[in-house]
Specification:
The structure holds two protein chains of two kinds. Chain A is α/β, with parallel strands linked by helices. Chain A has three domains: 190 residues, P-loop containing nucleotide triphosphate hydrolases (Rossmann fold, 3-Layer(aba) Sandwich), CATH 3.40.50.300; 164 residues, P-loop containing nucleotide triphosphate hydrolases (Rossmann fold); 69 residues, no CATH class. Chain A has 18 helices and 20 strands. In chain A, helix 14 packs across helix 15 and helix 15 runs parallel beside helix 16. Chain A starts with 5 loop residues before the first strand and ends in a 10-residue tail after the last helix. Chain B is mainly alpha-helical. Helix content of chain B is 75%, strand content 3%. Classes of the chains: A alpha/beta, B mainly alpha. At the A-B interface, helix 2 of A face helix 1, helix 10 and helix 11 of B.
């Protein structure tokens, strides 16, 4: 974008927390009308930069200028006033307030006497929601929204400030389709805004962004035009070594018929309508679906977290009644579940990583009913190597780890339970390229050793890359079942949207 | 959260009555209000004087101190904190009023300001410790509670003294022949709540109580929200101490001690979530009134006062079980 005016200029900014250097000598310039990608592995300093730009933390050294004026925000509110709005990765919506109230935090619309007017807030919120094409009720409470709806609301809230600089931190982590977001981003840039776009999905970045700045170990390595840089170049800059691992299809297990370990017949209830599936030993069975098509209910039903109106589940051919994850773990060869929201459903942030890993089996590793830290650590060390988790993290509080390492630890936990059936719900959501590779190889070797995996992913390349067969859910049913060479992005996309002549496996 | 959810799901038009009923039942304040009405009916059955002006006034005078203290506690609990300093403030206000009685309406006003000042000061101290220094609220307010009680003992080492006559006679009376003044004061607190409910500060307190990180990333000042909650609570404890002195007409350095457990019981009974972010000051007020009414009912039913605690605890557990049962029932009903 030659000749475009600079909107935000960050020059040699550094930030350290005690002895830990989070950002060092970071420089980036955002131009009017551009979508600028920020790339880097987890822990590269992206979140720190986002926090600095949005006024959450102050840099130790360095200068920032907006349109020639110094920019030193002391709070989120001040940053917003200066025209910098952020949609945070961890979603900063308050669960017990309504959609409308969240849109206007920290200041609601006022009526008479300067008091908050619920009616005015809802009316203005409705206008914002329709302007950004978000079909939510302003009076809906955020706790009742799906993750995808919350993500859209977070984005809408940032856009509603009419920012000159819009920061989107992993905005598609919970979105199965990007059309809505990309349309809005293009609208904002057409109006002259600069967008800082953070995503681990390179295809997405290429589609939307013009330039990219790559971060590694807290330093800005380079700013490149995406048009000129190959994926290979970018990966190399991100990880600092040539890790040109091509996305290859798995050598799919064909021919030999393996025994089915998990069978579901006619599951119905909540958003499910008559879903049947069969998962065999050594198989990775993929589940694809646009957001809210019943995949979440399916996974939760299979571990007994969601009630079933009808249908049956069999493990190793025997009919079972699963009333919860604890029962699922102990039934037959065992089912372990890796849930969607690691922050709220997965980790115990105040406990050590080792403790988090061994938690489900803590009764097994104790001596005379007592568990020591050393026993925990020894037990956790074995499974941490399976997922390529650096053992030095075992003693840290898991809450202090990066998202990618937390996810590795959770996968280690699921494997450590000894269950031979894993239900993985979007296991690579919001993790970086390197971590993804470790997670992929952990899943693969688990299957190769005779385990069975049911894998939902919001990223199609991941399914193409990993699975032996793939089910496509649509409207609470299994709409299509793909195998072998049919598992490619084009067929999947067609099936996802319900436009397919594929056999219907009802 | 399910109460909110139901309110949301129920916003579809058509079944307004059912929605209203569900809302009342799933709102903690609704359940305890129904409980209060039932208890009051029982009380009126046993004791015909319950419906007389003096009966109602008596009930109101009895309940006002705890109701106002519980109102204060609910602010802190909604912001996801605990405030034990209530018993320190109540004791301190009470001994000050009994040691330095000031006659006449102006005297009453000065006494009231002193009580509010004591409560406000301890509230500010709590706010400094919890909101700014980020100490755990139980530990910090345990400290300020002990300080308050200790100070009360220094001022008055044994029960005694007399509260100004004007205060203890006038403020326990009725106006217009039927309306107890203590009840009006409680109503004024409730009215203030409804105004406060419509400020950004109050929404901030609810937000911080539910998710501190999200609230701060949304631009809410967590420090200011916590501080506001503690200072508001302290002021209300001061008022509670004033109303207690009005009622007892004498001083007692340990007068505030029973308030510690009873305010939390009232808050829980009133449907305020002890994990923060959910509830209403009104619920806490009705919860307190219910606990005090229960004492009356037991007394008029001829039950020895030694059993009061057992019944209060039983009713508390029952109300919480019932409340969570109803809200679960309503949420499955709404889903189907």
């Amino acid at each position: 974008m030659p000749g475009a005016a600079s909107v935000l200029d960050v020059d040699s900014v550094s930030k350290s927390y005690g002895a830990t250097v989070a950002l060092q000598d970071m420089s980036i310039e955002l131009l009017a009308g551009e979508v600028h990608a920020l790339l880097g592995e987890n822990g590269a300093g992206k979140s720190t930069l986002v926090k600095i730009l949005s006024g959450v933390v102050k840099p130790n050294v360095g200068t920032m200028r907006m349109g020639g004026q110094p920019y030193e925000p002391h709070s989120i509110v001040e940053a917003r006033r200066r025209g910098v709005a952020t949609a945070f990765q961890e979603l900063s919506l308050v669960p017990n307030l309504t959609v409308a109230q969240n849109l206007f935090l920290p200041r609601q619309a006022k009526g008479t006497l300067g008091l908050v007017s619920g009616a005015a807030t809802q009316k203005q919120a409705a206008a914002i929601l329709s302007r950004f094409r978000l079909p939510l009720s302003p009076s809906a409470v955020v706790a009742g929204l799906t993750l995808a709806e919350r993500q859209r609301l977070e984005i809408t809230r940032a856009l509603a400030c009419n920012p000159r600089v819009l920061i989107l931190d992993e905005p598609t982590a919970a979105l199965a389709e990007t059309e809505w977001l990309f349309g809005l981003v293009r609208q904002a840039t057409a109006a002259g805004a600069a967008v800082l776009y953070i995503s681990h999905r390179l295809a997405e970045v290429r589609e939307l962004c013009q330039r990219a700045t790559v971060l590694r170990n807290g330093r800005s390595i380079a700013t490149v035009s995406l048009h000129d840089a190959t994926d290979h170049n970018i990966f190399e800059m991100m990880v600092g070594r040539s890790q040109a691992e091509e996305m290859q299809g798995r050598a799919r297990a064909g021919g030999a018929i393996r025994p089915a370990v998990l069978e579901a017949e006619g599951l119905a209830g909540e958003s499910l309508k008559n879903v049947s599936l069969k998962l065999s030993e050594g198989e990775i069975l993929g589940v694809a679906g646009l957001e809210g098509q019943g995949q979440r209910a399916l996974f939760r039903a299979l571990v007994g977290l969601a009630p079933l109106a009808s249908g049956s589940v069999k493990i190793d051919g025997g009919r079972v009644r699963l009333s919860g994850p604890d029962v699922a773990l102990k039934t037959g060869r065992g089912i372990a579940f890796l849930p969607e929201e690691r922050k709220t459903e997965g980790i115990f942030p105040a406990l050590a990583t080792a403790t988090n890993i061994v938690l489900p089996v803590v009764g097994r590793i104790g001596r005379a009913g007592l568990v020591s830290e050393r026993l925990e650590r020894d037990a956790a060390a074995g499974s941490s190597s399976d997922v390529d988790l650096n053992p030095r993290y075992l003693d840290f509080r898991i809450g202090d780890l990066s998202g990618g390492n937390q996810q590795k630890a959770l996968l280690a936990r699921a494997m450590h339970t000894g269950a031979r059936i894993l239900l993985l719900y979007d296991p690579t959501r919001g993790v970086d390229v390197g971590t993804k590779q470790s997670i992929y190889s952990a899943i693969r070797s688990f299957a190769d050793s005779g385990g069975a995996v049911l894998l939902y992913s919001s990223e199609l390349p991941e399914l193409v890359h990993l699975v032996d067969r793939c089910l496509v859910v649509y409207g609470g049913r299994i709409f299509a079942q793909l195998s072998g060479g049919d598992i490619n992005e084009r067929t999947l996309v067609a099936a996802l949207t319900g436009h397919s002549s594929q056999e219907s496996a009802a | 959260m399910s109460a909110n959810l139901d309110a949301m799901r129920g916003s579809a038009p058509g079944s307004n009555v059912a929605v209203a009923i569900r809302r009342v039942l799933t709102d903690g304040a609704g359940v305890v209000a129904i409980l209060y009405v039932i208890l009051f009916a029982l009380y009126a059955l046993w004791d015909r004087s319950a419906l007389s002006v003096s009966g109602v006034t008596d009930l109101s005078n009895n309940a006002a101190p705890l109701a106002i203290a519980a109102a204060g506690e609910s602010l802190v609990v909604i912001s996801k904190g605990f405030d034990l300093s209530v018993s320190g403030v109540v004791s301190l206000s009470n001994v000050l009023m009994a040691t330095y009685p000031i006659e006449g309406p102006h005297g009453a006003l000065i006494s009231l300001l002193i009580c509010l000042g004591v409560g406000g000061a301890i509230g500010v101290l709590n706010g400094l410790l919890v909101a700014i220094l980020r100490l755990q609220s139980i530990a910090a307010t345990l400290g300020t509670m002990i300080m308050g009680q200790g100070l009360a003992l220094v001022i008055m080492d044994a029960p005694g003294g007399t509260v100004a006559d004007w205060v203890s006679n006038t403020l326990t009376d009725v106006i217009f022949g039927v309306i107890p003044i203590s009840g009006l004061i409680v109503l004024a607190v409730v009215a203030l709540w409804f105004v406060f409910r419509r400020t950004d500060a109050c929404i901030g307190i609810f937000a911080v109580g539910a998710d501190e990180t999200a609230a701060s990333l949304s631009g809410i000042s967590v420090v200011r929200a916590r501080f506001t909650a503690f200072v508001g609570a302290g002021l209300l404890y001061g008022l509670a101490g004033f109303m207690l002195s009005v009622q007892t007409a004498t001083g007692n350095p340990t007068a505030g001690t029973p308030f510690l457990m009873l305010t939390f019981a009232a808050v829980a009974l009133g449907g305020v979530s002890l994990t923060g972010g959910r509830g209403s000051l009104v619920g806490a007020v009705i919860g307190a009134a219910t606990l005090m009414l229960l004492q009356k009912v037991l007394f008029s039913g001829g039950v020895s006062s030694f059993y009061t605690g057992i019944f209060q605890g039983f009713v508390l557990v029952l109300a919480i079980v019932f409340g969570s049962f109803i809200s679960r029932l309503a949420s499955t009903g709404a889903r189907a």
